[in-house]
Design brief:
heterodimer, A: alpha/beta, 6 helices, 55% helix, disordered C terminus, B: mainly alpha
Chain lengths: 139, 438
């Protein structure tokens, strides 16, 4: 019985290690969460938010489920969540229409020239790629 | 859609929902299907698979086609095809929509209910992956049940489940929307019928898995089919008839559905077959040593349970009976002519051996062999349990309960830490001409 117990505990312990390692394997997914969170906190003044998603992010967790089509600002979201009564909901709907902003996602690959990044308002990208491009822009 | 909360907050919320789904499944199973026979260990498997979804909710590039398809089906419905991802970013080879359709249908009620209450869209990803885990879980529990019935032993059934639940890769992969996972759903049903000695049905399902989801399942079908024929479990005409009818139905289904979604006459797996086998481009993705599956993939997938596989197989009498066909011999339960261990394992050895010849190797390619190997290991595991119990250790049943609790605790404790998993190599930057006030 001890042998079986050890075998099962060893398996379970290995599972814990594996699942921990696996959970660190999706940087693109977490970057997407942070992007949406950031968009909703900051209040962009442009009407079209144009996001570029690079290859690594698209391969490691950034799917269409992470994308949003439009953005309403943070105050509305709070109003929506915190007011259970019908009146507030009506207000929410009215304000919503007024400040809706479009969000566009682009997965174009092989953007080597820094000038090609000019149209994007946000980048989700690998660290070294950004350092290279930003360095090039500032020269 | 309302706002998402701070990072991690909306990842935490699906927990009560997943728990509700477990309870709901239990109630539905016991209510609608009186004979469903779902045990507590069965449900533990589902819960662990869903816990993996919760800890790793995202998907990788190999899962891209199916997850984008499931998204488009859920969000746009099956009519606004021009918005679908496969038209916007066409991949190298076409894939079938059938798997995505099945998961999207299962996930749709949960998605609609959550969206109606203002939940962020990212929740739907969890629902889709939880649905897929459910689709794999159902035949997995049926396989365990079939094993228990074949050997007339609840211990063997529970051993099978316990081995499956303590291995990582199998339950982790069962919620990943890979073509292999959708193939696995059908292959698990095929294994179940194989154990139940319903060979024609088994052949039909193997054919469906091959022709709809993964053409490379042929490497598994061939040894299994040869085994059935050599053992005279099915006559050659009956085998041919089952294969042809299964194939005809599968191809009709995939061509009809996928031609609609791809807007041209198409049989996706035929294109995949053409690209991968005839043109053989797979080596472009990397080359592994010949014995990689044996020395790297299988040890990681089986873990310590490999010892019980050895205990099941290293009984010379069983190998002899397996090779000589059912003859007179031992008749003790879980042994003798009725023992399936070698019958299940020999085709898997051929399967992994054949796949080893291909230079490009991935763990998911041989995922099919894990439940079959576990079915064999369960016999050795149950035997070890019996031996331990007849030796009369009084604390044994208490210890087994402690074990179950422990396994549960390990999973739960690893869940809580996920929100600290920061993206390591990606940053989010505002571009230099940022038009933002903050």
């Amino acid at each position: 019985m001890q042998g079986i117990a050890v075998a099962i505990i060893a398996n379970a312990a290995a599972c814990a290690v594996f699942v921990r390692a696996a959970s660190l394997n999706y940087p693109g997914g977490y970057a997407a969460l942070r992007l949406v969170e950031h968009l909703q906190k900051s209040q962009p003044t442009v009407d079209l938010i144009n996001v570029h998603v690079d290859n690594l992010a698209a391969q490691s967790g950034f799917s269409r489920f992470s994308q949003i089509d439009s953005l309403n600002n943070g105050a509305i979201a709070v109003c929506f969540f915190l007011s259970p009564n019908a009146n507030a909901h009506q207000d929410t709907d009215t304000v919503c229409c007024a400040v809706l902003k479009q969000v566009h996602f682009d997965k174009t690959e092989h953007l080597d020239n820094p000038g090609q990044f000019a149209d994007y308002t946000h980048l989700v990208t690998e660290v070294h790629a950004v350092v290279d491009s930003v360095g090039a822009t500032h020269e | 859609m309302a706002s998402t909360g701070p990072l991690g907050a909306d990842m935490l919320s699906p927990i009560p929902l997943l728990v509700a789904m477990v309870v709901g499944t239990r109630l539905t199973m016991s209510g609608l299907f009186r004979h469903a026979d779902v045990s507590g260990l069965d449900l533990l498997l589902l819960f662990v698979a869903w816990a993996y979804v919760y800890v790793c909710p995202f998907t990788k590039v190999e899962e891209s086609f199916n997850i984008q398809a499931a998204h488009d089906l859920l969000i746009f419905g099956p009519v606004e095809l021009e918005k679908f991802d496969h038209f916007e970013f066409p991949g190298v080879v076409p894939r079938t929509f059938l798997g995505a359709i099945a998961t999207a249908i299962l996930a749709a009620p949960f998605h609609l209910a959550a969206a109606a209450h203002g939940a962020p869209k990212i929740w739907a990803l969890t629902f889709v992956r939880a649905s897929l885990a459910f689709l794999v879980w159902v035949p997995l529990t049926r396989l365990g049940r079939a094993l228990g019935q074949h050997y007339g032993s609840t211990t063997i059934r529970n051993s099978f489940l316990l081995i499956c639940v303590t291995q990582f890769h199998f339950l982790f992969y069962c919620s990943r929307p890979l073509p292999n996972t959708f193939g696995l759903v059908l292959v698990l049903w095929a294994y179940t019928l194989w154990v139940q000695r319903k060979f024609s049905g088994s052949v039909r399902l193997f054919a469906a898995a091959t022709l709809i989801f993964r053409c490379d399942t042929l490497i598994l079908c061939a040894p299994v089919g040869v085994s059935m024929l050599l053992r005279r479990q099915i006559s050659f005409p009956a085998f041919l008839w089952a294969a042809v009818t299964g194939a005809a139905a599968s191809v009709a289904l995939t061509v009809a559905v996928d031609s609609y979604f791809w807007s041209r006459l198409i049989w996706p797996e035929l294109d995949v077959f053409w690209f991968n086998v005839i043109l053989n481009k797979s080596a472009d993705y990397g080359v592994q040593p010949l014995l990689w599956y044996l020395t790297s993939a299988l040890p990681r997938m089986l873990l310590v349970s490999a010892a019980f596989l050895g205990a099941s197989l290293l009984v010379p009498r069983r190998l002899w009976q397996c090779l000589r066909g059912p003859g007179a011999g031992a008749t003790e339960p879980g042994d003798g002519a009725r023992n399936l261990s070698w019958e299940l394992v020999l085709p898997m050895i051929a399967f992994v051996g054949l796949y080893s010849l291909l230079p490009h190797k991935e763990l998911r390619f041989i995922l099919y062999c894990v439940p079959a190997l576990n079915a064999a290991s369960a016999v050795g595991f149950a035997r070890a349990l019996d031996v331990a119990q007849t030796r009369g250790s009084k604390g044994s049943s208490f210890l087994s309960k402690v074990l179950a609790m422990f396994i549960f605790a390990v999973r739960i404790s690893s869940i809580g830490r996920v929100e600290f998993a920061e993206p390591r190599s990606l940053v989010l930057l505002l571009s230099s001409h940022s038009a933002f006030s903050s």
